[in-house]
Design goal:
Layout: E1 2-3, E2 9-13, E3 16-20, E4 22-25, E5 35-41, E6 48-53, E7 63-67, E8 76-80, E9 85-89, E10 97-103, E11 109-114, E12 117-123, E13 133-138, E14 146-154
Antiparallel strand pairs: 1-4, 2-3, 3-14, 4-13, 5-10, 5-14, 6-7, 6-13, 7-8, 8-9, 10-11, 11-12
């Protein structure tokens, strides 16, 4: 993170990160084919933006963001450094919404989504070899706090495995059915495997 203006603060509390006169940014850069999705609450303030930027200080072009420019008119915009600007709506400020910016290939366009709905696709000239960083930015410290609940970047790995901790009943027990709640995107699957044993750390005596 970094401070734009004296008095700016970045806070982490209650599962939210808030920027006010500051910005936070990714250490890694990302290229075409990346989508960023986030749940955020924008306020009626100038220069609150979340998206891609060519550098971590957020000083140079190109950049592609969702947010507001130098006029706080109650609307939220899909914005790009080539002066592209599309109104995403006037009912988005002050409450949390889910947003997504998809960097499309090979057309080198960016698609903007709000609450799962495609709003607009805009073209901006960016060299395919130009990676960009992810920014959460609020330039003015007097205009309200931009808060983010979560943010993720895709594409995700083709597969992955999560190994849980050992669930120890601390006594003899006959474990029953495994149940779970999951949300699986189209074309993906989820499988759960379980094993059991009588030692604190799984060993050769545990079931397969």
């Amino acid at each position: 993170s970094a401070i734009f203006n004296s008095g700016g603060t970045t806070t982490v509390s209650g599962g939210l990160v808030g920027v006010n006169g500051t910005h936070i940014y990714s250490n890694s850069s990302f290229g075409p084919g990346t989508s960023i999705e986030f749940a955020a609450t924008f306020t009626a303030a100038t220069f609150q933006n979340i998206g891609f930027s060519s550098d971590q200080p957020f000083n140079n072009t190109p950049w592609v963001v969702i947010g507001q420019g130098n006029v706080a008119d109650g609307n939220l915009y899909a914005r790009a450094s080539d002066n592209s600007s599309v109104n995403l709506g006037s009912n988005l400020l002050g409450t949390s919404h889910r947003y997504r910016i998809s960097w499309n290939t090979p057309a080198n366009t960016f698609s903007f989504y709000v609450d799962g709905n495609l709003i607009t696709t805009t073209a901006i000239t960016i060299a395919v070899s130009t990676p960009m960083f992810i920014q959460v930015s609020d330039f003015v410290e007097t205009g309200g706090v931009l808060s983010v609940d979560w943010l993720r970047a895709s594409p995700y790995p083709a597969s992955g495995t999560f190994t849980s901790r050992v669930f120890d009943h601390n006594a003899s027990a006959n474990w029953g059915m495994v149940n779970w709640i999951a949300s699986t995107p189209t074309g993906t699957t989820l499988a759960i495997s379980a094993r059991a044993g009588n030692t604190a750390t799984p060993d050769g005596a545990w079931s397969a």
